Amino acid sequence: QVQVVESGGGVLQAGWSLRLSCTASGLTFDDYDMGWFRQAPGKEREGVSCITWSGSRTKYADSVKGRFTISRDNAKNTLYLQMNSLKPEDTAMYYCAADGYGFDTGGYNYWGQGTQVTVSS
């Protein structure tokens, strides 16, 4: 059974940094491309960033380019999202997804339960 678990969310002020982590079990981690999504209250889930299985290719939403960095450690079965210069509009539930690439939510087979990030001004 595949399990995807996010961690690292919190409440912080604008301008601060935060790193989210995502572990995946029940699958061969380095076989799968992965992504981060987020969903703010009243809004649709949107893609934030994604990465190929090897880490050789990444993609970012325009709203986070230059501030967020996705990475992975296949030896630890862990995906990361380093978020710098956080803004109030980054407030959302952040989800990790496995076995997909790009920003189409329908393109991923496995999802975590999410971790909340709240940024105050």
Question: How would you describe this protein?
Answer:
The strands form two sheets. Strands 2, 4, 5, 6, 9, 10 and 11 form a seven-stranded mixed beta sheet that branches. This protein has a four-stranded antiparallel beta sheet with strand order 1-3-8-7, with no helix packed on it. The protein is 0% helix and 49% strand. It starts with a strand and ends with a strand. It is built from no helices and eleven strands. β5 and β6 form a beta hairpin.
Briefly, what is this?
With 121 residues, the protein is mainly β.
Global outline: globular
Taking all residues together, what is the mean pLDDT? 96
Helicity level, as a percent range?
under 10%
* Rg computed from alpha carbons, rounded to a whole number of angstroms: 13 Å
> What structural class do you assign from the helix and strand content?
mainly beta
Strand content bin = over 45%
- Counting H and I runs of at least 4 residues, what is the number of helices? 0
Distance between the termini: 41 Å
Q: Runs with pLDDT <50, length 5+?
A: none
Total strand segments: 11
User: SSE order, as H and E?
Assistant: EEEEEEEEEEE
Main β-sheet description:
7 strands, mixed
List the helices and strands and how they pair.
Elements: E1 3-7, E2 10-13, E3 18-25, E4 34-39, E5 46-51, E6 58-60, E7 68-73, E8 78-83, E9 92-98, E10 110-111, E11 115-120
Parallel strand pairs: 2-11
Antiparallel strand pairs: 1-3, 3-8, 4-5, 4-9, 5-6, 7-8, 9-10, 9-11
